[in-house]
Amino acid sequence: MMSMQSIRSFIGIDFDDNTKAAFLKIQREMLKLHEFTSVRVVSPGTAHITLSFLGHVKLSEASRISEVLRSISYHPFCITFRGVDVFPNKRRMRVIYIGILPSKDLKELYGLLATALPKRYFPDRRFDPHVTVGRVKRFVPSEQNALADTISALSTYHVGRFNVSAFQLKKSTLTSKGPIYETLEEFKL
Q: Which of 3, 85, 104, 138 has its CA 20 to 30 A from that of 164?
């Protein structure tokens, strides 16, 4: 159990209401995720891009992280959401997500963060930005093919665009009904 003097946190990009509404439409009307008993639908209200999962950090460390993040200077930019896919693959689905077309600006912002913060917050993994819309909690054979077919049909669907003008340091509290995210500080671009 972690001390009350630490918080579970991440650095992310939040979305406006119009973008969240587009995600909800995909979840409910196009994917119909609520019809699959094996899937836990992620609330569009919590939708975000994770730039770095920090894990449990002491409050004093969170304060130092905020200081570093305030020093990041970058310009606003636009990203494009395209396609629905899964991690790790359609035979062993765990995460259902909306993809983001490659973005030089998003990659550069990530690089600035990775350079400014300690390396432990940016493990040697590929940066694969996405927006999680569902999690497959258990394998249900009768649903597997229908879910894979539905996702495949949306693999190139143009979801929309979003203007990134800020990123956030977020606190994440896990509950039985899903995570609760709280913005600790927002950093304007």
A: 85
Residue 13 tokens read as 């990009």
Which of 5 and 57 is assigned the larger pLDDT?
Answer: 57
Active site residues: 48, 130
Which residues, 6 or more positions from 170, have their beta carbon under 8 angstroms from its beta carbon? Answer: 9, 10, 11, 12, 48, 181, 182, 183, 184
The residue type of 51 is L
Residue 132 has pLDDT above 80, yes or no: yes
User: What gap in Å lies between CA 111 and CA 123, rounded to an integer?
Assistant: 12
Give Cβ neighbours of residue 97 (< 8 Å, ≥ 6 apart): 84, 85, 86, 87, 130, 131, 132, 133
Mind listing the domains of the chain with CATH numbers? 6-188 (3.90.1140.10)
CA distance 91 to 127: 23
